Amino acid sequence: MKTPRTFWLIPALLAAALAGCQNAPPSAPPSEMKLGVQAYTFRRFTFAETLDKVQTLGIHYLQAFPFQNLGGGLPGKFNYPMDDATRAAVRALIQSKGIEVVSYGVVTGKNPQEWRKIFEFAKAMGLQNITSEPPQEDMPLVDQLSREFGITVALHNHPKPNRYANPADSMAAIKPYGPNIGLCADTGHWVRNGYDPVAALRMAEGRILYLHFKDLNEFGTKAGHDVPWGTGISNAAGQIAELRRQGFSGIVFAEYEYDTPTLESNVARSAEYFRRALKAPMADLIAGRVVPPGFTRDATQVWDGDRGKDSRRWPVSQPLIKPGDLSDVTVASGAWAWRDDVLSAPAGGTLWTKDSYGDFILMAEIRCSEKPRGAIFIRAGDPSDPTSKSIKLELGGRRPGGGSDAAGPYTLPKVKQAPSLKPGQWTQLVITAHGGQINVTLDHKDIVKLNLDKLTKAATPADDTTTPLLSPDAASAPPSDLPRSGQIGLQSEGTPIEFRQVLLDRL
Q1: Which of 8, 66, 268, 487 is most buried when burial is the number of CB atoms within 10 A of its CB?
Q2: How many CB atoms lie within 10 A of CB 385?
């Protein structure tokens, strides 16, 4: 059985992750930075095939790398030994795709003669930049050639022991030179080396020419690999927010080094996240409200697809009750049982969690009989008497004629009548408890939306045809006084009610 997944940003985690952006002005203007691709992303393809893939992504800028086969019937690699006829054919191919190859790297000359050939090649190909990792003793020559050919040079940072692994060392290396010398900041390699990419970008303000942008699944290790932007631990939102704060208007090259069967879709997801992040208000970007493609902050979509397995920031929902295991709950012997990943109560009774829960999203699929009688309790405040001072959602009502409802608190304000449970069919229920706000959806339809803080008078059922949201002992007290944390209970009153996929996310 496929495990459903949902994804939520935990406020404390997000606050820590984005602390580096706290000074970014919420009113920052829309960014003019542009998105490109480093051709190394598609290194197992030819340069000609890479142009097609970049065109399909709707991206117009490319940074070539020197060891990629040209393809398309052209011999050799995208490198300076290319003869004049091949250079002309490559330029024509690039133009036909509507793509601008603006940079070339990472490439480093071994001697003055090779350095000059590299710059001559870049000029002949109409490039604006060379990305390199020159030795310190070559920097004066590189600066001279840069100004002679009118081509900028961006220092790249591979991981340690590379000479530019530390962002402070990169900044020291370019300090003596003018704006023709800057950085191609590889934020993924910073993360691999244990450097905060947002802090490093802030340190490099004003000297960033280009970026190799990445979001990784691990911090401080070379084993970390790319994941779609906005889903990893590299604080992609914070990086983009910092670049926007700086008014960066250059090109951000996506360099996805992790070669996976889903490479192209992952790059497409990263590109879409980047576009969303550029358009979003700064306050939303900093607060983590820019949702990566394929993810959701809507609990009603928990059963849609199988997302999140590559994400640390958007965690997979955890079972409230381990399938096949009742050791973490309190329940009378034989009252509840697992069968084929389905939890049911043949003898009736109430199952209680041993842990207490405050703010959470509880998700479950429910299947009932013709005339079900049961309930879900949340935030039960007294362990010795869990039904007191709790919030109770009836599963099956007492309507005249024996009909069944997923009953709601009809006597409380801002509550919609629940749709009927259809006997024998699985129904998807989501309960969100956040502070005083309690929301309930059934099959993606809102049935409860209320704020306990505003309910300062006792609530009681109107008549016998309705069932209250509050448990009997709690109905005599103002809902605003109910506990904000407590146990969760599943109740069956002897009629068949089954649960599966019972998941919970703490908020």
Answers
A1: 487
A2: 11
pLDDT of the residue at 415:
39
Q: In 3-state terms, what secondary structure has residue 241?
A: helix
**Spatial separation of the C-alpha atoms in residues 279 and 272, rounded to whole Å:** 11
Confidence bin at 316 (pLDDT 50/70/90): low
Report the C-alpha gap between 235 and 88 in whole angstroms.
41
Residues 502, 321 contacting (CB under 8 angstroms): yes
Max mean pLDDT among 94-103, 340-349, 445-454, 460-469 falls in 94-103
- How does pLDDT run across 443-498, given as a tens digit for each residue? 777 777 888 888 787 655 443 333 345 544 445 567 788 889 999 988 887 677 88
List the structure tokens of 54: 């970049």
If 0-12 CB within 10 Å is exposed, 13-18 middle and 19+ buried, where does residue 397 land? buried
- Residue keyed to tokens 């409380």: 412
> What's the token pair of residue 18?
């984005």
Phi, psi of 238 (to 5 degrees): -65, -40
Q: Which domains does the chain have, with CATH numbers?
A: 30-281 (3.20.20.150), 319-506 (2.60.120.560)
Q: For 67-111, where are the alpha helices, taking DSSP H only?
A: 84-96
What is the DSSP secondary structure assignment for residue 40, as one 8-state letter?
G
SS3 of 113-169: HHHHHHHHHHHHCCCCEEEECCCHHHHHHHHHHHHHHCCEEEEECCCCCCCCCCHHH
Angstrom distances, CA of residue 507 to CA of 22, 278, 489, 504: 22, 27, 19, 10
Reduced to 3 states (helix: H, G, I; strand: E, B; else coil), residue 249 is: coil
pLDDT at 100: 97
- ∠ Cα 196 199 202 (to 5°): 150
Average pLDDT value for the chain: 81
